[in-house]
């Protein structure tokens, strides 16, 4: 089955074409805010300007004719309303023109399913850390259950926010990682794990205060990473202990960070947990993950009408995972 998926919940507009075995073609065009954070209206304008071109390029790079596509899919949510509506409109147009079925995919579940596909992990605890989302999840009885999650902002957005204070443009995460490598001193910041949940906005405020008081930016970036990644590692560790699962999957854009990977790897080694993460192109937001998940959903009997509404607050645990035993 050949499946085309469109992703564009926030900053990255991306289209992927996959079959049951592999990615046939994958194109993206990220929106780059001129300054500040992601502006939903500007991002959606970017997506609508670029989407037709990206779809055409993805199809031609896959070396297929449009009629060979068996399934159309897009991110149904969660995400920014104006952005979601652009990709939904494109997917509806493709479905109606090509007369092929349509599937609306939960973005977070697509990270999980493509992560499993890319790593070969079978039943992992999942640490999903992206711009807007930060969750620790595990599968049980037809749902990806949330063990713990952020009580305020996603860690990616928190890092991006602090980066803006350093006059670093979006995305800030990789730039903070670079500065953190030069950090030498661990500065005390709030460590906020509450039960199995965590929060990051107080951490950013505290980091900003340290900056105003003249601490070195390299040290603050280093400390910001050490504190926030330790919080994630602690919750992931407890989810593993509680569930008895023997695998850990890291996914989402923040998962590209070497220090986070290192911490999780060390913890996993200690408990003989198999630790994995997708290859880089599947780590952040991408269309191939949507296309892959759509095949699983469609084969389990899920199909949507072109009139389906986008869901800005679509929760991971809302979805019945019909395709898993
Ligand atoms: P996503 O929403 O999954 O595409 O992830 C985007 C987020 O990942 C943004 O907030 C980025 O700042 C963050 N990010 C990307 N690369 C890194 C990195 N190396 N370290 C930390 N955060 C990162
Ligand atoms: Mg994402």
Essential attributes:
325 residues, alpha/beta, Nucleotidyltransferase, domain 5, 19% strand, binds adenosine monophosphate, binds magnesium ion
In summary, what is this structure?
Helix content is 43%, strand content 19%.
Question: What does the model show?
Answer:
The chain is of the alpha/beta class. It has 2 domains: 3-110 and 282-318, Nucleotidyltransferase, domain 5 (2-Layer Sandwich); 121-280, Nucleotidyltransferase, domain 5 (2-Layer Sandwich). It is built from 10 helices and 12 strands. It has helices spanning 40-61, 81-98, 107-119, 155-165, 173-180, 201-212, 217-243, 258-270, 280-283, 287-299; strands spanning 3-7, 12-18, 23-30, 71-77, 102-106, 125-129, 134-140, 143-149, 193-194, 197-198, 247-251, 274-276. A 5-stranded mixed sheet has the order 3-2-1-4-5, sandwiched between helices. The longest helix is centred in the C-terminal third of the chain and has 27 residues, at 217-243. The mean pLDDT is 97. Bound molecules: adenosine monophosphate (AMP) and magnesium ion. Adenosine monophosphate binds next to α4 and α5. Magnesium ion is lined by residues 107, 111, 130, 252, 285.
């Amino acid at each position: 089955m050949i499946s085309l998926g469109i992703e564009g919940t926030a900053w990255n507009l991306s289209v992927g074409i996959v079959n049951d075995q592999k990615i046939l073609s994958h194109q993206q065009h990220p929106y780059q805010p001129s300054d500040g954070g992601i502006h939903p209206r500007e991002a959606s304008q970017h997506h609508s300007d670029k989407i037709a071109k990206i779809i055409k390029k993805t199809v031609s790079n896959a070396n297929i004719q449009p009629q060979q596509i068996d399934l159309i899919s897009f991110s149904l949510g969660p995400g920014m309303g104006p952005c979601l509506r652009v990709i939904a409109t494109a997917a509806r147009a493709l479905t109606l023109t090509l007369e092929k079925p349509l599937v609306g995919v939960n973005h977070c579940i697509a990270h999980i399913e493509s992560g499993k596909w890319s790593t070969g992990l079978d039943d992992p605890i999942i640490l999903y850390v992206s711009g807007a989302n930060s969750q620790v999840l595990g599968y049980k009885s037809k749902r990806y259950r949330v063990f713990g999650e952020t009580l305020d902002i996603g860690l990616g957005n928190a890092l991006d926010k602090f980066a803006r204070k350093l006059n670093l443009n979006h995305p800030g995460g990789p730039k903070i990682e670079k500065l953190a490598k030069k950090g030498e001193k661990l500065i005390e910041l709030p460590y906020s794990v509450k039960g199995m949940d965590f929060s990051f906005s107080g951490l950013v405020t505290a980091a900003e205060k340290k900056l105003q008081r003249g601490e070195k930016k390299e040290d603050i970036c280093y400390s910001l990473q050490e504190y926030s990644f330790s919080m994630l590692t602690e919750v992931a560790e407890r989810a593993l202990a509680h569930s008895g699962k023997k695998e850990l999957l890291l996914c989402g854009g923040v998962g590209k960070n070497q220090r986070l990977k290192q911490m999780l790897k060390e913890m996993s080694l200690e408990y003989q947990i198999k630790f994995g993460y997708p290859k880089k192109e599947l780590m952040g937001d991408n269309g191939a993950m949507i296309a892959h998940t759509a095949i699983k959903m469609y084969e389990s009997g899920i199909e949507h009408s072109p009139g389906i509404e986008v869901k800005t607050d679509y929760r991971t645990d809302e979805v019945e995972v019909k395709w898993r035993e």
